[in-house]
Structure formats: C-alpha cells, structure tokens
Amino acid sequence: TSYFVALQIGAMLKGTCYLAEEIFHLETRHRGSFWRALSACLHLRWHATLLLVSGSAYVALLDGDRRSLGLHLVLTCFCQLLFLALGLH
C-alpha cells in the first residue's frame, strides 16, 4: 500500500510541476483558462481517488503510531521530488 501511495503522490507532484510551468502559457495553450491547464496537468479525480483508497489502506495497516505516518509521507514526497529532479522517474 505504501508503494501505491508513493506512486500517487509522485504523479500529483509531477502534475503540480507541470502546472507551475503551464501557468506561463495560459493564453497561448489554454485560452486563458486556469481550469483547462489544471485538468491538462493533473487528473484530479483519478489520482485523488487512488490516493484516498491507498492512503486509507495504509492508515488501516498502521500500528497506531501517527508520527511514523507523517514521517513516511514527508519522506515519500521528498524521494518523489528527488526522482523527478534527477530524471529517474
């Protein structure tokens, strides 16, 4: 389950990076619509649903230590950003 959570976090972070770049091209590529750019970069329904299901399963399997959940999420985000920055993904 942590692998699926990491995949969804990685996909959402990658889409967020794409969105940050697409904001500069709103007029030329997306006819000035922020929502078109957002939907082109992030498939929110799909990723949010999978993240919710995977995250719920991960929390259900946790032993009750909430601090380790936060630490795992922070480390997962950091690793995914590092993979994106190094082009390993």
UniProtKB/TrEMBL annotation:
Entry's Gene Ontology cellular component terms: autophagosome; endoplasmic reticulum membrane
Domain STING transmembrane residues, every copy: 3-88
GO process terms (BP): activation of innate immune response; autophagosome assembly; defense response to virus; innate immune response; positive regulation of macroautophagy; positive regulation of type I interferon production; reticulophagy
One GO molecular-function entry: cyclic-di-GMP binding
Keyword entries, A-Z: Membrane, Transmembrane, Transmembrane helix
Record InterPro entries: STING (IPR029158), STING_TM (IPR055434)
Domain of life of the source: Eukaryota
Residues annotated as transmembrane: 44-62, 69-88
Name of this protein: STING protein
Gene name tied to this protein: Tmem173_1
